[in-house]
Structure formats: structure tokens, C-alpha cells
């Protein structure tokens, strides 16, 4: 176990939804930067264990913690587990999220409610806990999406949950005045993960990949680099902002 790794030695980050996709890349990157990392997941225990084992194999510190972010009690226990293992929490990376595409006319109540429960209420649950418990000097990075700018058909409910996250980002940055805690959001564009790829034909994936002037999909590592900037020393003066990380798609 490493005990010190440059400026971030001793800092602790909770990464929600870190068993797969962008969250796993973020957990690995923050651990490489010196954070002790709590690898949160909802269902994929084996994948989360593999992420944590990989971090520890490279000399980092990691703990897995199951919690459905839509459950406020589970989120409280997630923070309890982080504090018990590592002594406190310095960074919350609010990555857990789900996507469901449907025209508004065809989206049923259950589908709408689930998007709101995970993406909006889940972000609220973790933000409330972080606002109460993060150590001074801490960092919060929320997850929006570039669809908030693109606003294509089919993304109505999903984009609405992410627009709400952007609003809470700016409000919480102001509410935390005096504690030297920054609150920002990352808004990825199309990124090669299960969330983006599932249910899309190779032709559609290829077409969407070419939309950005950089003519490729984002990789989880591209997004992790931006999160590491906001969570690390170089991002100290960025506060209350949403950063679109999307190869220039919008
Ligand atoms: P993935 O579907 O690849 O991974 C989602 C992760 O979130 C998994 O680790 C999953 O854990 C976890 N998760 C899902 N529901 C819950 C829950 N209720 N509680 C806790 N964890 C949960 O998604 P991505 O990596 O692509 O997305 C990460 C974030 O980036 C999301 O907020 C998404 O909206 C956003 N985003 C992604 C884009 C993309 O193109 N990929 C574009 C724009 C934004 P488990 O497997 O255990 O359920």
C-alpha cells in the first residue's frame, strides 16, 4: 500500500459507478494520482473488485462499496464506509448514471421515474452527503452530458436529469462558500462504454463517432483526464462550471 504519492497523498475520493466504463477509468486515474479511492457500484460486485484489485496491484489504495445512489440511506452508509476505511472524504466524483432513449410521447412512467431516481435523486443524495461531510479544501465533480447542449430527439428525459445536475452544480458551488470546496460538472460527449454502445448498430455508432471534428468516440481515459484536472491541484481555481469534454461535438 502506498502512503504518499505527491501532493494528493492522504486524500480520499469516492467515485460512484466505478465498476465499469468512465467511472472505472476515473477510479484508476485518481488512484494513480495518489487518492485512496472508494469504488462504488450498484450490481457489478465482481467488476468493482477487479478495479480495486488492479489499483492495489499498482500500489494504490482502494475499497469497494455497494450502494444504489438512488437510496439515501445507502449513500449515507457509503460515506460511513469511506470514513471508516480512510478517515474522511476529500473528493466526490458523481459518475453513476443510466441512460434510456425514448421519444417523450412513448416514455412510460417507470422509465421516467428510474432516470430521475438514479441521475437526479442519486446526484442529490451524494451531493447532500458530500456538502455535510467533505473535508475543507475538497472537490466535487458531477456528471452531466453534452446532450444538454445537443438536445436531439429521444433524449428528453435523460437530458432533463442532466440539466438539473448542472443547475445543482452551480448552486452548491455557492452554498459551500468559505470551505474551499470546488463543485464542477463534466459533460462528456459520445464515449465508448456500455451506456453509449448498448442497443446501437455499428453503422449508427460510426455515424455518431464522426460527428465531432476530432472524428472519433471519446474513451473513458479522455474523460478521466478531465476529472483528474478538476479533482487535482491544477483545477483549484475552476468552480461552479460545466466542462464539456467531447472532441468539439458542441
Ligand atoms: P456505464 O453504463 O458504462 O457504467 C455505469 C456505472 O454506473 C456502472 O459502474 C454502474 O454500476 C453504475 N451505476 C448504475 N446505476 C447505479 C446506481 N443506481 N447506483 C450506483 N451505481 C450505479 O456508463 P458510463 O461510464 O458511460 O457513464 C458514466 C457517466 O457518464 C453517467 O453519468 C453518464 O450519464 C455519463 N455520460 C456518459 C456518456 C457516454 O457516451 N458514455 C456521455 C455523456 C455522459 P453497476 O454495473 O454495478 O450497476
Automatic annotation (TrEMBL):
Keywords: Oxidoreductase. Residues 11-189 form the Ketoreductase domain. It comes from Azospirillum doebereinerae. This is SDR family oxidoreductase. PROSITE patterns: ADH_SHORT (PS00061). InterPro entries: KR_dom, NAD(P)-bd_dom_sf, Sc_DH/Rdtase_CS, SDR_fam. The keyword Zinc does not apply. GO terms for molecular function: oxidoreductase activity, acting on CH-OH group of donors. The keyword Oxidoreductase applies. It comes from the Bacteria. Belongs to the short-chain dehydrogenases/reductases (SDR) family.
Amino acid at each position: 500500500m502506498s502512503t504518499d504519492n505527491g501532493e494528493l497523498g492522504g486524500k480520499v475520493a469516492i467515485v460512484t459507478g466505478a465498476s465499469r466504463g468512465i467511472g472505472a477509468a476515473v477510479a484508476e486515474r485518481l488512484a494513480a494520482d495518489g487518492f485512496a479511492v472508494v469504488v462504488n457500484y450498484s450490481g457489478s460486485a465482481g467488476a468493482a473488485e477487479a478495479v480495486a484489485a488492479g489499483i492495489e496491484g499498482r500500489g494504490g489504495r482502494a475499497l469497494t462499496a455497494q450502494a444504489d445512489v438512488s437510496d439515501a440511506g445507502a449513500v449515507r452508509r457509503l460515506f460511513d464506509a469511506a470514513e471508516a476505511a480512510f478517515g474522511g472524504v476529500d473528493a466526490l466524483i458523481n459518475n453513476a448514471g443510466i441512460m434510456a432513449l425514448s421519444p417523450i410521447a412513448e416514455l412510460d412512467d417507470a422509465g421516467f421515474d428510474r432516470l430521475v431516481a438514479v441521475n437526479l435523486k442519486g446526484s442529490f443524495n451524494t451531493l447532500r452527503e458530500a456538502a455535510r461531510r467533505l473535508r475543507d479544501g475538497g472537490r466535487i465533480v458531477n456528471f452531466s452530458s453534452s446532450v444538454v447542449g445537443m438536445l436531439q430527439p429521444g433524449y428528453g428525459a435523460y437530458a432533463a436529469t442532466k440539466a438539473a445536475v448542472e443547475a445543482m452544480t452551480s448552486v452548491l458551488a455557492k452554498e459551500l462558500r468559505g470551505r474551499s470546496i470546488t463543485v464542477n460538472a463534466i459533460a462528456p460527449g459520445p464515449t465508448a462504454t456500455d451506456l453509449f454502445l448498448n442497443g446501437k448498430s455499428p453503422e449508427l455508432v460510426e455515424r455518431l463517432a464522426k460527428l465531432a471534428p476530432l472524428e472519433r468516440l471519446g474513451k473513458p481515459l479522455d474523460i478521466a483526464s478531465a476529472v483528474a484536472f478538476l479533482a487535482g491541484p491544477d483545477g483549484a481555481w475552476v468552480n461552479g462550471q460545466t466542462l464539456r469534454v467531447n472532441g468539439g461535438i458542441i
